Amino acid sequence: MATATAKPKTNLQRASELGALRSEVSRMTTYDWVALDKRGKRMKGEMPAKNASLVKAELRRQGMNPQTVRERSKPLFGSTGSKVKPGDVAVFSRQIATMMASGVPMVQAFDIISEGQKNIRFKNILLDVKQNIEGGAALHEALGKYPIQFDELYCNLVHAGETSGVLDTVLDTVATYKERTEALKKKIKKALFYPMMVLAVVFVVVLIMMLFVVPVFAKTFQDAGAALPAPTQFVVNASKFVQSYWWLIIGVVVGGVTAIVMAKSRSIKFAHLLDRIALKLPVMGDITRNSAIARFARTLGVTFRAGVPLVEALDAVAGATGSVTYGDAVKQMREDIAVGHQLQLAMKQTGLFPNMVVQMTAIGEESGSLDSMLFKVAEFYEEEVENAVDTLSTLLEPMIMIVLGTIVGGIVVSLYLPIFKLGATIG
């Protein structure tokens, strides 16, 4: 009697079964459990299951005595997790690079990293990437589903590592790149945060004085019936205006900031204008320029070391400079290199790169060590940014105190001028 042989499953059937299994798992409830092992040691963990009885049965099968099995409560707020920050991606890159270099299989590495991930949103992203890899997708394809967290540059570098067979090395390079880039961003934010906070405090303090302090003095002056000095009259009139139109002042400030942010994101010309102004500012212009050069050099060095062709690499580098002006210059360089020009010549034509950067690039091209030279350029300009940030902080502190003292002190002195005048008259 002939026996029927089972036909091998097609890829479509396997994919369908895997999708059904994932759907079933996603419908399960997560239970937190506490149990005692064979030695009486207290153990705890979590397990997805359809009900608590199945969790207890599985624990007993593993030789443990269940104590408590409770359904994990869902948080009222933030159940989807907070925003995935670039720093989170940098830490993930370092973790996955270390594990792969140690011989841990990629799927298992994703399991370990996602298990220790506190950000629920990022955890779900990593689990989905792992499932796509299990389904046959390449790592760069699975990461490409999340372009906000893993941009085109990141995916291109991973793809280059997969193609060349040195994915762990490339991931380690990417991790270093992300860490250095984030450190540079933090330095720039540090330079901007302090003056912005002080200006905000000055605005609030002046607003409070105009709304609550000056009116008390104004009433006293009005009851006295004395003529007010010009500075005092100006402050009183300003206080009356603020009391009548405080909502308009706040609306203009908030609306102005919002309009600038929206205009920058929607208008290329306006973004160019702001970028040119930023590059011409004293001290701040040096920080903007040096940070753009540092990002350009490090990003291009990373992509070149990963094996990405130079013309393709410049596409990703243009968006990583953090400057509209330098981004456009990189795009122009890409066109020049596409028709056969050397990188150092294309850089020189833009007029935006210092002679030292151009010469080091030329040496790197001639010696075949372009990536190493670019990394040295990046390190030099990153240090320049750090020094400029320290200089800016040192310069801003006395300037801010002078502005703060002038505004607040001027209001206080103006309010006391009639009192001083009255005292002089009596004397």
TrEMBL record:
Transmembrane segments: 192-218, 245-263, 399-419
InterPro entries associated with the record: GspF/PilC (IPR003004), T2SS_GspF/T4SS_PilC_CS (IPR001992), T2SS_GspF_dom (IPR018076), T2SS_GspF_sf (IPR042094)
Pfam family for this entry, one: T2SSF
Membrane topology: Multi-pass membrane protein
Places the protein is found: Cell inner membrane
Domain of life from the UniProt record: Bacteria
Keywords assigned by UniProt, alphabetized: Cell inner membrane, Cell membrane, Membrane, Transmembrane, Transmembrane helix, Transport
Domain Type II secretion system protein GspF residues, every copy: 92-215, 296-418
Family to which the UniProt record says this protein belongs: Belongs to the GSP F family.
Name listed for the protein in its UniProt record: Type II secretion system F family protein
The species this protein was found in: Dyella ginsengisoli
